[in-house]
Design a protein that fits this description.
D-amino Acid Aminotransferase, Chain A, domain 1; alpha+beta; five-stranded antiparallel beta sheet; single chain; Phosphorylase Kinase, domain 1
Length: about 300
């Protein structure tokens, strides 16, 4: 299966291009294609990761079904008859990596839930004893499970880095009622997903959700991809060891490789060796198989 770097390679013209996804406005719906692009340090790398877009899409569909009792999502059945002609001739290439979605007004907040102390959260805790202004018990070690999951939101930046914000700042941005709702739902979604993942030998250390307001039905729903290797830290339980960084099923492997270079983390990004590309693809496919019991 040939990697897809961009839908423009198929002669299609996306309305908007993100780091990974190409988005098409179909009027009352959105058609979102997850390409095989990969970014690191907010820079898109020149090499695609085979099957990555398929994994992101199919794992999102999997979680949507598992978590449907908590909140509605923006996902609609992907029926070829709903699509314009230019997509139909490429449907075999697009079908496993595409989502047909309801349109919403996106809430401009990244909803991050942390169940374990890792990454930037551990660095901040090591310096201040807090994560995003939330005071934590003293003496916690890297990768240690937190007493309870914490909600650490950030701004949603189209370009550049997101910035951590407090819950009070979320209230200022979207209002108290919406802020409380997305915090509650984010934690509920994380807890149910994390509990399920443990039965498959996987720790979900942290993850990110996004929400949109469905004006037609006057409700907030879950949007974008969720609980994927691009938006979560997945660790194998059989190799989990408190006090160290953990092996993971996500793009940390690519970040670790890039950290060995003298790259200044500005565009253009360096090319990836074939070994790094293949290993990363394998990690994405493996987490999908472990969680769903299916093969890509």
């Amino acid at each position: 299966m040939k990697p897809l770097l961009s839908t423009t390679d198929l002669g299609l013209k996306p309305t908007k291009k993100g780091k990974v996804r190409d988005i098409f406005d179909l009027g009352d719906k959105l058609f979102i294609v997850a390409t095989d692009r990969i970014s690191a340090f907010d820079i898109i790398l020149p090499d695609p990761i085979p099957k990555k877009g398929i994994v992101l899409t199919q794992i999102t569909y999997f979680w949507a079904e598992l978590l449907k009792d908590i909140i509605e999502t923006h996902l609609l059945p992907l029926n070829i008859n709903y699509l314009p002609e230019e997509f139909k001739k490429h449907f075999e290439i697009l079908k496993l990596r595409s989502m047909l979605c309801k349109k919403t007004t996106v809430l401009p907040v990244e909803c991050i839930v942390r169940g374990y102390l890792s990454g930037s959260g551990f660095k901040e805790y090591y310096k201040t004893g807090s994560v995003c202004g939330i005071k934590l018990p003293s003496g916690l070690l890297e990768s240690q499970q937190l007493p309870e999951p914490i909600f650490t939101p950030s701004t949603k930046a189209d370009v550049g880095h997101d910035e951590n914000i407090s819950f009070n700042e979320v209230v200022k941005i979207i209002g108290k009622e919406k802020a409380r709702f997305i915090k509650q739902k984010s934690i509920e979604l994380y807890q149910k997903a994390a509990k399920f993942a443990l039965t498959k030998g996987i720790i979900i250390a942290d993850t990110k959700f996004e929400f949109g307001y469905d004006e037609k039905n006057n409700k907030i729903i879950l949007i974008d991809e969720f609980l994927t290797p691009d938006s979560s830290r997945f660790w194998p339980t059989d190799k989990y060891e408190i006090g160290n960084s953990q092996p993971s099923f996500d793009k940390q492997f690519v970040r670790d490789y890039l950290e060995t270079l003298s790259w200044d983390k500005k565009s253009p990004a360096p090319k990836l060796p074939q070994e790094v590309i293949e290993t990363t693809s394998k990690k994405y496919c493996e987490i999908y198989s472990l969680l769903t019991g299916k093969e890509i």
